[in-house]
Amino acid sequence: MLSAMRVGSAQDVDERARQVRRFVDERILPVEPELAAEPRQAARRIAELSAQARAAGLWGSFYPQALGGRIASLRAYLLVAEQEGRSEYGPAIFGDDATLDLHMLSRHAGEEIRQRFLAPLAAGTMVSSYGMSEPDSIGSIPATLSSHAELVDGHWRLSGRKWFICRAERAALVTVIARTAPGPLESGLSMLLVPTDLPGFRVERPLSILGRFSGQGELSFDQVQVPASHVLGEVGQGLALMQERLALGRILRSVHWLGLAQRCFDLMCARIHSARGVQARLADKQLVRQRVFRVYQGIASARALLHDAADKYDAGVANSIEVNIAKVAASQALSEAADSAIQIMGAEGLSELSPLSGIYRTARTTHILDGTDDALVSAVGRQLLDSCDETGLDFDWPSVMAGAGR
């Protein structure tokens, strides 16, 4: 039985993707209205579905293999992750919310941290979050971060505020970016692992996104005494770890967005071929065909870009350009797909009679989350210009960039 073994071959991965799709279509999509209801009620339902996913062997597919992960390569996992992302609630139900933290802690945490936190995170009995953005900083400019920590008597005294933090009210552990030394960012920032039961930690308020609460909030740290051993990696390594985290995190988020985009495409095509669509002769209209073409083109292009970025990640090749272009492409693909599906479905697409209004809200947030489109376009544009010489840009990245690291 596939769920009882490690996924290895392409055939195994394909079968796992099919299993995940069936689970999403049969168990998650029918109850999405419940999952969008009152948060505590939704949390109970998500916990039930997560237990079912674990029982089916579909939990934590891309966890580190020592912690139960079934798929070793990021490139292979993308096929499964796209199916997990067909529902807004899929990533939480399949345990994907912990994937990034498990990889970062497995690589960079000390033995004390690993022993205390890895197993509960992998089991889903502990929730983690990541604190970078701040109310008074500019998200795309790390130099403006003001949270700071000072090492005193074996503890970091951490003070500052973070906002728009996912899973803010449920997290037992927050990875916080803070300045730990003056001077250049390359040596002045560190990642601190902060248990949320420490004195001085506080959840200040929940923050809704486009009128809907989705678990984000604002956190404050008032002289929180964090053990000295709770540094991820080395002191002063925060900027490098931020970049490493973003490289994987943007791919993981983007492929889930692609799953939502594919679902919008499916809903749009189903409406075109429905009895009402046939009556309106939708398939015969050029503008309808243009929407189908453009949505399909966007999804296929973003998928190829993500696969390219994942291949380079797996090979240990520098891939920041590929990751950022893929992130923007996936965001654009989802927005185009949601907008076009709503346009084809009409007023019904704007209502609670379809999932499209919720997906549309999600689509708009993707242009902000994990780096705004404007900031990424500007950064990649500069990288491309800096990489060009008089003969142009060499696109043979695997050989050119090998050994440069991520």
UniProtKB/TrEMBL annotation:
Domain Acyl-CoA oxidase/dehydrogenase middle: 130-224
Reported cofactor(s): FAD
Any GO BP annotation: fatty acid beta-oxidation using acyl-CoA dehydrogenase
Domain Acyl-CoA dehydrogenase/oxidase C-terminal: 236-385
Cited Pfam families: Acyl-CoA_dh_1, Acyl-CoA_dh_M, Acyl-CoA_dh_N
Domain of life of the organism encoding this protein: Bacteria
Entry similarity comment: Belongs to the acyl-CoA dehydrogenase family.
Protein name: Acyl-CoA dehydrogenase family protein
Source organism per UniProt: Pseudomonas viciae
